[in-house]
Amino acid sequence: MNRLFKYFILQYKHSPILNEALNIGILYFFDDKKTFKFSFPSNLERFKQLYPDFSISLLKAYLHSVAVKVDEVNKELAKTSVDHILFKEESQKLEDLVHKKILLQDSTALQFLEPKVGRIFSDLNREIDQYTSSLVPYYDFKKEVINRHDEQYISRTFKRLVKPNKKVFKKIQEQKEIRLRDDFILKVDFIWKNGTTNLVKPLSFDLSDSQTIQNKALNPFATLTYNKDYLIENNYRFDYIVAKPQQEKLFKYFDKAIKFIEESKAPHKIIEFEKLGLYADKAISYLSQES
Fold first, then answer.
1. Is the per-residue pLDDT at 28 higher than 70?
2. Are the beta carbons of 264 and 57 closer than 8 angstroms?
3. Measured distance CA(97)–CA(82) in Å, rounded
4. All domains of the chain, ordered by start, with CATH?
5. Residue 235 phi/psi, 5° resolution?
6. How far from 9 is each of 14, 91, 281, CA to CA, in Å?
């Protein structure tokens, strides 16, 4: 097999003042299959040695957001032609697709470089791993032990995603007590508006046993059900940012818990932690345009 592909190096710039950049991931594009593949290190702990104030959780959120957008673009590519997705303008190239649909230029500390061409001679997966490990430091290190993604972790991550945009962050209320039906008082982490008043609550199911996971679903379901009419009348919506358990054996109980909450007819939205970057992007986009 003799196969050409294109790849974009994703760089992380910790500080514009230092003007230093680290390779943090590789985005591959295979012309024959018209698909992208995004590779980045599972272990980011080593990068913290270079910058003491380096935020692993924030960078992970950014990287997962890129990965989600890559999946979305691949789904689009499967339905239509590359030319169509490139907004039907001949002057635009593959990099336009990357910058417009996967990661905006100058939007964060992460930036894709111009594409380069590579060639695969035999085993695809093995040679792609070789490319990535040679270009991205620490790519082939073992995955680090991840701390529990509790409610505080979720809340801090969302705040770090939106806080750099000062104009937007001023429009987001933090740690507010809201009055619901029958003077029911509930504290939410954030409130922002886009036609509805979105009450943002982190909800972690990153727990160690199935019974605790199932029990934890009871509170949000009860809150939604009890306050359904009040939420509708006042144009409120609960946005639950949920973290799933890290143990694969508990995934099915997490799925059941989410399904149980979603049986409520009250206005609500479930945002998976892995898609928090997309949710934050939507909030930033809307609030940036609002006068």
1. yes
2. no
3. 9
4. 3-135 (no CATH), 151-289 (3.40.1350)
5. 60, 40
6. 16, 22, 22
Q: Does residue 144 carry a pLDDT above 50?
A: no
- HEC secondary structure over 171-237: CCEEEEEEECHHHCEEEEEEEEECCCEEEEEEEECCCCCHHHHHHHCHHHHHHHHHCHHHHHHCCEE
Q: Which residues contact 50 (CB under 8 A, 6 or more apart)?
A: 14, 22
pLDDT digits (tens, 9 = 90+) for 256-284: 999 999 999 999 999 999 999 999 999 99
CB 9 within 8 A of CB 38: no
Cα–Cα distances in angstroms (integers) from residue 207 to residues 18, 105, 141, 233, in the given order: 40, 37, 26, 35
Q: Are strands 22-30 and 3-12 parallel, antiparallel or unpaired?
A: antiparallel
Residue 273, SS3? helix
Please report the DSSP string for 237-264 in residue order.
EEEEEEE--SSGGGHHHHHHHHHHHHT-
Nearest one of 237, 27, 236, 210 to 128, comparing CA atoms: 27
* pTM for the full predicted model: 0.53
CA distance 24 to 104: 16
**Mind listing the pLDDT tens digit for each residue in 73-102?**
888 887 765 544 444 443 347 888 888 888
CA–chain centroid gap for 236, Å, is 24
Please give the helix or strand (H or E) that residue 268 lies within, else none. strand 268-272
What's at 286, amino acid-wise? Answer: Y
Asked if the model's pLDDT at residue 230 lies above 90, the reply is: yes
Instruction: Report phi then psi at 139, rounded to 5.
Output: -60, -40
> What SS3 state is found at 34?
coil
Which residue did the predictor score with more confidence, 174 or 124?
174
Q: Which is it for strands 268-272 and 236-243: parallel, antiparallel or unpaired?
A: parallel
